[in-house]
Amino acid sequence: MSYTLLSAVAVVVALLLDLVVVRTRVVLTRQWWISYAICFVGQLAVNGWLTGRRIVTYDDAAILGGNHEQFVGDWRFCYAPVEDVGFGFALVLLTIVSWRWWCARDGGHSASG
Questions:
Q1: Are 12 and 94 in contact (CB under 8 A)?
Q2: Strand intervals (E) in the chain
Q3: How high is the pLDDT of residue 72?
Q4: Is residue 71 one of the residues assigned to a domain?
Q5: Residues of the chain with pLDDT under 70
């Protein structure tokens, strides 16, 4: 399975969990999109640094675009392939959905209190 396909599956699974399975509906809130925008800037900075310096490289056959240093374009943002954006979105969304779901199950109490 290609990195592109895995990224798309991760996004779909995260959205389905949020909207259908646990029904936290995080992505329907303005708070989510503001929070995700902040995370996205950080993700681009870190991914850009790692891929722009070729610390992390990708197989051309596994991603959209080519495996060359390009800041924007050819399916890249800040040097990182667009697939990384999908994985980042899914990771942050799953974290927030899990947090909200567990807090709701716990009656809103923290583990330490």
A1: no
A2: 76-77, 80-81
A3: 66
A4: yes
A5: 1, 66-75, 108-113
d(CA 63, CA 56) in angstroms, rounded, equals: 13
Q: Count structural domains, the chain.
A: 1
Is 59 within the bounds of a domain? yes
User: Taking the model in full, what pTM does it have?
Assistant: 0.80
Label residues 65-91 b or e (16+ Cβ within 10 Å = b): bebeeeeeeeebbbbbbebbbbbbbbe
| Model pLDDT for residues 64-83, shown as the tens digit of each residue | 876 666 666 666 777 788 88
Which residue type is seen at 47? Answer: N
User: What's the confidence (pLDDT) of residue 53?
Assistant: 85
Give the per-residue SS3 of 51-71: HHCCCCCCCHHHCCCCCCCCC
Residue 113 lies in a domain: no
Q: Is residue 109 part of a domain?
A: no
